[in-house]
Amino acid sequence: MIDGHGDDLYRYNDIEANFSSNVYNHVNHDELYRHISENLYKIRSYPEPEPYSLEEIIAHKNGIDSDSVCVTNGATEAIYLIAMCFRGSHSLILSPTFREYEDACRLHGHNVQNIFSLDSLPDEKSIIWLCNPNNPTGQIRDAAYLKEVISKYPQHTFVIDQSYEMFADRPTLQVKEMAGLENVIILHSMTKCFAVPGIRLGYATACNTLIKLIRSHRMPWSVNALAIEAGRFLLAHTEQYKPDVQSLIKERERVETRLAKTNAVDIYPSNTHYMLLRLKYGTSAELKDYLAVNHHILIREASNFAGLDNRYFRIAIQTYEENNKLIKGFKEWTLHQLQ
Description:
Blueprint: E1 17-18, H1 30-38, H2 52-62, E2 69-72, H3 74-85, E3 90-94, H4 100-107, E4 111-115, E5 127-131, H5 143-152, E6 157-161, H6 175-178, E7 184-189, H7 190-194, E8 202-206, H8 208-215, H9 225-236, H10 238-241, H11 245-260, E9 265-267, E10 274-279, H12 284-295, E11 297-298, E12 300-301, E13 312-316, H13 320-338
Parallel strand pairs: 1-11, 3-4, 3-5, 5-6, 6-7
Antiparallel strand pairs: 2-8, 7-8, 9-10, 10-13, 12-13
Helix pairs in contact: 2-9, 3-4, 11-13, 12-13
């Protein structure tokens, strides 16, 4: 597990606005709290050895067989399970992206190579890791383009992390269609979609053969009883948790415009509610400390993404008022840098 992951609130005592993870923090979980409270008695018994009931619900919602779903302790567990399944493989990671792909692959003896395009992949059989929408850039690769690449390179196994699919402003790969292919695994995160990072729920979807392989490496009881109950509740109330993607993107564009006017930062194109930025002077670690101490704001210092240096940081859009607080704090920091 890397140091410097987003949402490191545990390091601070008085953060009031958290931009450091790609979760939109202002979701009303009152009904979920009640549901979990009503099921607290379940901690007195073991949960399902494997979360069959949750896998069946996910399969039904996606129109696939339950043998094509593997529920995990967050999408991160799925990443490490897949790396374990293909131990010693050649892995190509489309970068810059989530560092856990590389960490998981190196833990399990993969030959890891960072790549920056899918336009020309090698002939050698490989595992291709990519995030769509991508973390940390927010970039989305069109589903039609990805299907073309997958079809062109049947010798490769594609692991496509769609953890932020509910925040995409265009279609991502469809589970039912991809589950019929033998070289595609799609990762999903309930953490991101439902803003419940503390619960740790994710899942992989793929053809029956690949899911059987992944399940064979999963520990018994890796998903606890309360997480299973939370998952059942959230999947039964998906509509009320759907984010207003267009409003979030519109607000991201407003913040982007305001920050760009400082002439202190380069901003990379994004198709979702979070964005990657690069300082023209100073370091992101210095900016992070300044905002945390002086404005009680937390951002994601991004130098530990492959290919990025110590001037990169990432933010995820929050409320209008919190975003204004960030803009104000950033302007003050740039003035300090110029003095």
